[in-house]
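Just scan my protein:

. . .
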Amino acid sequence: MVNHYYIYAVDDDFGPFFLKFCSYFPYNAKLCLNGHEYAKRQLERQGIAYQALDNGVLSCADPQRLQQICDGLSADKIDRLLRKWLRFLPHPFTAADQIAGFRYDMSILQAEFSLTQVLDRPVHGRLFFEQVIRENLDLGRPDEVQLIFDRRITRRTPGRMRTRILTQGVTPSLHVYYKSTRIKQYHKEQRALRTETTINNTYDFGIGKRLHNLPRLREIGFRANRRLLEAERLSYDCILAEQTFQRINGPVEHAGQRASGLRFADPRIHALWHALVLFRLLPKGFRRADLRHHLAQLSGRHPETLGQGAMTYQLRRLRLHGMIERLPNTQCYHVTDAGFRAALFFTRAYNRLLRPGLAAALPGHRATPTGLKQAFDKIDDRLTALIKQLALAA
């Protein structure tokens, strides 16, 4: 026995959609459509150029008109779509049934409201979103959920309030739950930050299921999207920090002068950072001879092996990167605030984190059994045991 019939069609106004009819009484039916496809069809009919982003819109020649089209998708238009196709498609109600008063009425089984924020620099957007996930794992707590949905939550509130992080391939997604409703946030097509609220039960918000309640649900869904973005916080600007890191490590050009990058963990650059930390304490700045003397000691070389040209090159490189500045009418240099902080961060990160951390993590290195070393050893043992258990070993 066939339980359901699926009919897939394309409408001039709504684009692709499908109807699902149940084959037994009371002959329930399900209509599924996508508002983004409706918007794209309207743009095409009005001759407005756009670029698609999967089922969304990446760019549009007239964004204001696009927003008006989206706002104009009403319950009445959806109802007319159903009535139009019921006149063409076979369905369980015969003409006699319809004369007797049997007809389909529409209710809302599931409604999804999305906000797509297109990023001009997608790589930085990915960095931003990954940091959002790390620092906002508490969004599923009741006190945060009631701020997002503007609903009072008590111990009697049904459902499990929680935050879930799901990863498909290398793309993570953030999920926040309230009763039967879910907010999902992810990096769409590596080009945009997508926030979407899916309402699976309108009674979660004290609203009926009839289609005429769609405007009230739209208000709740879009407001939840905005409130989620307002509730999310970062402890630092990861995008600007990434730009600064890449600028320091890459070559720089200023006023026609070029200088190579200050590459992280390069032994010669590491010695430069150490020298800057020391020179910051000098009230009258430092000279080229001071830099030569300190670099020789830090690199285990004799000062005579470091030529004047090499010192001039290092000073110009530090100056063009903004790490030092020359004091007016002198041959002395002063370490800038940015230079001091960068030097302090790079030296501490290498000496206290990277070097001892690798000694504990990599095999064959003699290291004190710290928590990090024990954790890596435990991971290795567990993976080895799993490989043997699955008979994957050579």
The domain at 239-357 is CATH 1.10.10 (Arc Repressor Mutant, subunit A). The longest strand covers residues 4-11. The chain has four domains: 1-93, 110-235, 239-357, 362-389. The mean pLDDT is 87.
